[in-house]
Amino acid sequence: MRMILKSLRLENFKGVKDKTYEFGKTTRVSGMNRRGKTTIGAAWYWLTSDKNYELVSNPNIRPDNIEDCIPTVTATVDVGGKEITLSKMQKRKVGKPDKNGVSKVTITNTYEINSVPKTERDFKAYLEELGFEFDKFLICSHPNVFTKDLSLKKKQDEMRKSLFAMASAKTDLEIAQMNKETADVAKLLESYKFEEIEAMNNASKKKAVEQLDAIPNQIIGLEKAKVDVDVAEQELAKADLTRRIAECDKKIAGADHSLDELRDKEMRLQLDISGITQTMNRELSNRRYEIDADLCGCKDELKHLEQTISLKENKIVGNEKAITDADAERKKIGEKYNAEYAKAFDEAPYLFDESKWVFDENSTVCSLCGQKLPEDKIEQLKADFESRKEKAKADAEEKLKAKRFKFDTDKKVELNRLNTIGTEKKELITELTKKNADLNTEIDALKKQEQDAIAKKEELSKQLSEIPSEADYTQNEDYVKLKAERDKVLADIEKLESDGADKIVTDLKVEKADLQSQLDEVNKIIAQAENNVQIDDKIADMQHKQNEYGQAKADAERILYQLKEVSKRKNKLLVEEINQHFGIVRWKLFDFQKNGEYKEVCIPTVLDEETGIYKVFGDTTNTGREIEAKIDICNSFQKFFNMYVPIFLDGAESINDEYVPAVDTQLILLTVSEDKQLKVEAM
Prior knowledge:
By secondary structure, the chain is α+β, with helices and mostly antiparallel strands.
């Protein structure tokens, strides 16, 4: 929908008695302060949105000290080539005074379309059928909607809602599947919603934290319930005594003491060998992990490059379509220009018809007596006839001249109009062609980066494939030495076990008896502290649960971290997509903290041409740049919603005629000047 404001008539509206203003595609309204510039904008917004230029709802529009009047605003607009007259009037009725002497005042707004009375509902329904969306009108038309009251949370929420309508962000599952780091969440998102996963893991973490906080106190309570016996120490003593008695039995049965030493030595050697193999395999695993991490980073870079190239290629396609459309329209305009140029004035209807002017001879005979009139009377009649004939001939020639002049004038105006449009389309085609050339250059550079990334990826994949699944232990001198030593010990053990030996067991039996006596004493102590064992079992169970809850907490925190990463990446893509719709304005929609958390904001930033840095709107000292930013916001929303409506810009004195921002809609600049009388000039 494209709406052009052709004229605006104000009657009894604030300080304007009755005035009509005409507008072009770009119009500058200038004059000293308090000359009615803002009043024009206020009238337009009151007609279309029930607000004034300051965005105050239901504003006071009545002239001061005038009771009996009906403020009226009438706009003549062009919507898609159809001229429409829209009117809004405000009636005021003062009721009878109440007992306190206060009269109730009733304000009623009435509407007309093409001079036909309409209800407010029918008025809005008519415009909506033409494509006029009231809920989107102000953000498309008023430059201050997005830049007024920026610090208010409610205002930022409204702005974010409007901006998010411009984005078609990926789903949480798609975002999670884009990165290996969020694989756990990606799997969960196949079955649950983002909020469900977050709620479940917050609940799991909370439960785990509560248990982890409670278990230490429970363990302390159990420890206090134990008797003053070191059961662990007694169990160790029992185990040691049991082991030593068993060793005596073995030795008594003929087991050689040296055989036990050899077995212990073999066990130690085996542990040393295992340590070497584990270390070597760990090094291989670490190397594999490092290369795999670099490979993942390389893949992420490739994905980003592919997405960037795709976006730019899509932009080229869009520009090419715009070029095709503009060229087609330019050709159509050319055809119209040629047709208009070929038109020739048809003078036939306006030429004097001599044949219709013949003197009536019957008029020389008296209608009463039937006799011929005197000669002097006849001559007078003929003279009068010729006078009338000459006058009619002169009038016809004058009319012919006037019609020819109007035809030539209208033809010239139309040819100029068509030529202007054709020139604009040609300039647009040139601009878009240049943009596509720049984009192709950027794409070529990105594709070079992509080829480099592919080559790096292939090299890393090759390095990863060359890493063996298991280390070559024979290359380790310590391993070879220890294995040879162990093989010798195993051979000695085998020889001793096969040969057997006579052992003196007398001392062993005495030793065993002494050990058994000690064991009996230890068993008595353990029996006394049996309750301690049960308590220790409970403590061990709690410690096991403590580990389980610790793992549950870690698992929940891992999922919650991945959810934050998904949310951050989604928000980043969302911001990037929204900012693609704007020219010099970039939106900051999320404020990320050092702890990884973020809060929702809505802050417009403007490109500072001198520094090349985006500054927060209002922080820049370049007032003209701020005005360009306001227009950029309105123009961008108009493009997205396909609703082109007039933009009224107050305080436009910093924009001169040569540097008026290029927009796709009608622009009305309200400018403070030295002019004592209000001037309305089409540019």
